[in-house]
Design brief:
The structure is a homohexamer.
Chain A lengths: L18 H14 L4 H6 L3 H15 L7 H14 L3 H15 L4 H8 L7 H16 L8 H6 L4 H24 L17
Helix pairs in contact in A: 3-9, 4-5, 4-6, 4-7, 4-9, 5-6, 7-9
């Protein structure tokens, strides 16, 4: 079987992209050794590309109470609930690397309740899933238990906002049938020493 | 009963905002006569504010096959499915104005299948709801019927991307319990002449 | 677009109706200034017309612990859950008038949890929604918290019975595709003084 | 275990009931040999009692295209979907008697798709369940297939209205935890000859 | 209407079955007076037949804290949730016999929450339904309340394993459209003395 | 974090097991290089252990139209729908090996509709999921399309029976919180040559 295309929509040639978009793509290729397909698939609409990655960086690269691995746990758990092939595979790889744990990503993707996480991480994921699936039921009473586990209000915003951003991202990936790069599947799978 | 706050999170003073954020807020106030609460509620995180409105403008102000009223129909229908108070009330007002129709917004919000729309608009909303609620089931077979009704592939991207963006927006509004401005409720309700 | 019909089924001429049915219709016209479409749409079956309005009046005009506005809140919240165009629009108008509040009806219709209501009204609506959507799970334990908020057992019957009656009403309106009168959309929208 | 009460709410003494309500109860006792509990449980509110049974008789005793057994099939199938103990047991008994079939009621209650029914009855029950569970999705396209199977528009109204009435009835029975009379369980179970 | 076949798949002649399978079938016929259709429908695959009944006997005939009637209650409640015609009818009959109660099986099948059971039986059924419908949400916190009601850990395994076995059985019966024997409907319906 | 236990229930020592159970366990260890935890977790109840693996072998080792890889695809897809950590991880590994494809298992687990499969395999999985989640809706009309894709009736039985067996297996694994062996995560991940 030939490899299927990376998107239902046409993918532009690098040479035809605006300079800033091309620069961002070349930078990620330099750093990762390959270009994650989301950069190519979204580049056909440069304004949306810029807005998406600006939003992404604002939440995923932010300093704050949540570790980078915890941010990726939120992405993987909510993307699995939305059955987003691209996000679970790509961010599963990033989670393995950031958590230095080869098992955690698959555990979170299949049933986050049973992952090898700390109690506060379980509460974090419960809340992220509520934002992802039942945000209309969020109420004041959801906040004190999170604060009692050490989450600041800024952390709670981060949890909710990451779940909200990937609500968008999962839907875009499903809309365009975005295919994860083969490289992601193997990244970070070497066992813990 | 005193008016409840517009957000669960603190709202910054205009004077403390970065210049570009403040300028955007003043511009909308100038144009609308009031500041829609989403501008104030998101301003506390300027990077996310900028990314959100850049994304919003890229999709909602875009030239293309969908009319501005149709874009608002997508927002209202999907936001109603997510029970987002702010988005249904605020974009309901915008829809009334852009469609020059005082009934359409409420019809779409309560049961979009029964709104006074054209057949191609019904198909547009069915697809938007699929993106909003069941994006994992989108398949190639969903596209030809939309094309047969006159939607280009760029239009279909717009439908899906607007539904995806408001998946984010609805969840943020529910996370922070964003309150719609009282002004929205009455806008555009004068009967058609 | 010409105005669509008010029902999928034929609507009888006033002149052909039994005297009591016609009298009821003329009385509501006298009082409201127009004939709400439900009177015309149901009149083709006089026995069902009589039974429906007898049931309606027994519950909605009843003296008791619930205010008339609260009874309408139950109608709007449960009818929104059933996506009943007619009932949300028509009873939304009545709610605005009875509560002397131009915002409450839309708030209740979109997400009743976030309406500007009192705590006992929130509990009332939670119970009404349980009757509307999950009545098989009602249990003895549901009653003491309602009593603790000041509801008598007769009030609880009223809450449940109104939700039950509009379970019927919503399904009839959806069955016949009943259209709300244009007049309802604007009623009671003048801002509070 | 002592027999539990027939309702969560008090049941009035026959002697204290209005004359017409008492007469109706005595008549059913005369005819059936016992008083079905719904008569006693609803009698405490005579106006609602009268409206309910007027509605019931208008639909269940009506001449028309549907047989009386078919009307009961609709009741049993939709009441099973609502997990209404009283309605499934009581109307299951009536269905056995009216259809002269000792098996049909249980079949319809457990999985109506597998009952020993005719194809047009299967379509009738599919539509009744749509009214009971998803009435907001009813559309014009639902009607021609029913007409093609021989149902008149009056028959379709009957199907939908019976499903709607028992949407009310099931919720009332669940609200008050109405208990079916022991007599119902055995009625009509003698095998077909 | 001629009696429909007992399975969508061919049913083998007794004479063609392996000796142990035929012996088992003759034994049940000897004991019950008829051959429950599941024995005939599964016999076409002797290895699966043997595995199924070995599993069944290991759980349903086991000594332990649960009574045989309680084991059947679990079967009826979970099979009703899966709308399995065969299992509800056949095990409903066995439940009536084992519990010496002509009403309990129908009560459990329609809405197990309202059956005439003891409080510990209600908790048993709640847990069985969680295993049947939401096993991914089972957590350590589910166990102490069951232990407090007197269930040993072996009993809890039994509850869960019976629900799991009939998850299989219900799906097989639905796959092959297995028909319950007419005899089951009347068994055990004589009133309690 | 110390490795959590492999089951909520005690795990017996090999030395205390019946000879046949121990022999089976030693054989799998010999073949695989480790003992999959399901053998240890179920061994405490030898009769259920024997019945489970007899059923498993009858379906998974059977000759027939389905390849062994296809049988594993059914297991992974339905176990993912049930969020069964053990079955998705363990059978995902077996699927990678049997299909000689390092990507297929994760694709099937996250969203089986988007896996790199043949059209007949997509139909196979659609039917398996219907058995797993909505078996009460299976009808005669489901069979001809499968036959048209080349599936024999024995193949269809296999698809359904495997989905049914893992309905049991998933629930048992969730009941006892069965942990997949670490070894499974890396098996079969070497890229295709």
């Amino acid at each position: 079987m030939p490899t299927p295309p990376i998107s239902r929509f046409p993918v532009p040639a690098l040479a035809n992209l605006p300079e800033d978009v091309r620069a961002r793509i070349l930078a990620v290729q330099e750093k990762s050794g390959f270009v994650p397909n989301i950069f190519l698939a979204l580049a056909r609409r440069p304004d949306e590309f810029r807005a998406f990655f600006a939003y992404h960086d604002a939440l995923m690269e932010r300093d704050g109470g949540l570790t980078k691995a915890e941010r990726e746990m939120i992405v993987v758990a909510t993307s699995a609930a939305n059955e987003c092939q691209y996000c679970v595979v790509a961010h599963g790889a990033i989670l393995r690397i950031r958590a230095r744990d080869p098992l955690l990503a698959d555990q979170v993707a299949i049933n986050y309740r049973k992952a090898d996480h700390e109690p506060h991480q379980r509460a974090m994921l419960d809340f992220a899933l509520k934002v992802a699936l039942d945000s209309h039921e969020i109420q004041d009473a959801d906040f004190p238990p999170l604060r009692a586990l050490g989450f600041s209000d800024e952390d709670i915003w981060d949890i909710g906002a990451i779940a909200a951003l990937f609500a968008l991202s999962n839907r875009m990936a499903n809309l365009i049938n975005m295919r994860p790069n083969d490289e992601f599947y193997l990244l970070g799978r070497a066992p813990k020493k």
